[in-house]
Inverse folding.
């Protein structure tokens, strides 16, 4: 009995830690009046939802901006990651491990210091406050996921299938497009989803490079929370949460064990 009670307490604490913040977001999103010392909202309604999603509201404009930046980031990352991933998976490159580690360098340093210096360089190049500058920052950040997962996806493709296509007269380019690329497509799709979600949620780089002309949904959420508009901040946070949950379910289907075993191999 004590074992079951202990398990119940542990599971209850885990559920509270995971679901507690989400429940708080839902309460703030539904609250119209809520202030200290009341434990729950005094009134509920959809006034703030209507304010966020009004036709000419800032939230819809920021959401469209975020989606466009994320899609452009995915396109740029895949354009670089597919040839790089195939080369890292199939060719005997010198310093292959060092090349893979180089893609982790943007994550090895505090992002604040990195983005401050990027903002200074972009100011000289007149890229501050532009969509192009924001997309470049997101692309550098997303290449970590794109290259590593894409390389693992190509490494999981059986070499014998490629050799069979070559023996039947297929050129290297035709073999790539008819055998290697289709078989690696699920892993590439998973990397694209990771990049999309990272770009959609990216705040620090967008703040230093894009403000004040490029305002994405995370920036709008930050501005609302700083101003004390917790309902609007909660609603935008829930809007950002939806694609994350949906796409993670797709990733669970695309990333199989054979692909995951090849990451970094």
């Amino acid at each position: 009995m004590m074992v079951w009670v202990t398990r119940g307490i542990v599971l209850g604490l885990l559920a509270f830690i995971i679901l507690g913040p989400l429940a708080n977001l839902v309460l703030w999103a539904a609250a119209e009046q809520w202030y200290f010392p009341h434990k729950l909202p005094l009134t509920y309604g959809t006034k703030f939802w209507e304010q966020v999603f009004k036709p000419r509201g800032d939230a819809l404009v920021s959401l469209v901006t975020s989606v466009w930046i994320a899609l452009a980031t995915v396109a740029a990352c895949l354009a670089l990651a597919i040839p790089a991933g195939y080369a890292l998976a199939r060719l005997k490159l010198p310093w292959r491990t060092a090349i893979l580690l180089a893609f982790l360098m943007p994550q090895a340093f505090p992002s604040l210091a990195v983005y401050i210096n990027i903002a200074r360089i972009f100011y000289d190049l007149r890229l501050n406050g532009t969509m192009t500058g924001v997309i470049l920052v997101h692309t550098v950040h997303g290449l970590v996921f794109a290259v590593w997962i894409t390389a693992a996806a190509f490494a999981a493709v059986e070499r014998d299938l490629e050799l069979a296509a070559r023996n039947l007269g297929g050129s290297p380019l035709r073999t790539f497009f008819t055998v290697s690329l289709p078989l690696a497509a699920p892993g590439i799709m998973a990397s694209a989803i990771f990049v999309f979600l990272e770009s959609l949620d990216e705040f620090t780089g967008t703040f230093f490079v894009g403000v004040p002309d490029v305002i994405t949904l995370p920036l709008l959420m930050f501005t609302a929370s700083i101003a004390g508009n917790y309902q609007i901040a909660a609603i935008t946070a829930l809007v950002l949460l939806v694609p994350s949950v949906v796409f993670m379910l797709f990733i669970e289907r695309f990333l199989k064990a054979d692909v995951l075993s090849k990451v970094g191999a």
The radius of gyration is 23 Å. The chain is about 75% helix and 0% strand.
